[in-house]
Amino acid sequence: MGNPFVHVELATQDPEKSKKFYTALFDWKLEEYPGMGYTMIDVGQGTGGGLMKTPVSHMPDHWLPYILVEDVATCTKRAQSLGATVLKDVTEVPEMGYFSVLSDPTGAAFGLWQPMSGR
After folding, report:
1. What does the CA dihedral 82, 84, 89, 91 come to, rounded to 10 degrees?
2. Which among 98, 18, 8 has a CA at the least distance from the CA of 48?
3. Per-residue confidence band for 1, with pLDDT thresholds at 50, 70 and 90
4. Distance (Å, rounded) from C-alpha 110 to C-alpha 119?
5. Which of 9, 14, 73, 93 has the most neighbouring CB atoms within 10 Å?
6. pLDDT tens figures, 39-74
7. Bridge-partner residues for 53, per DSSP?
8. Which residues, in sequence order, are bridge partners of residue 29?
């Protein structure tokens, strides 16, 4: 398995403003997940993503890429042994998969994603 970018997520203080901007700029289709406070972004062709309210009020708005892995727990530990910092340890997204969020040794943030079927 390669390790492609499979999801790009926007965390923003103003989700409605971001939705309005990106749907006006691009032909993106949005699908709301109200119980989760999450919006999936279908870009049509290429890697899609999601949009949510920033979980920490003082954090600036940012995009976060997710990379596909076979085993998120093992890859998270390996990244940490190579100098990464774990920002969010392995977490389950019910009925979808598992993710973690790290920063590499230079401080660049990224996520790891393992679909449910792979665990």
Report:
1. -90
2. 8
3. low
4. 21
5. 9
6. 999 999 999 999 999 988 888 999 999 999 999 999
7. 12
8. 42
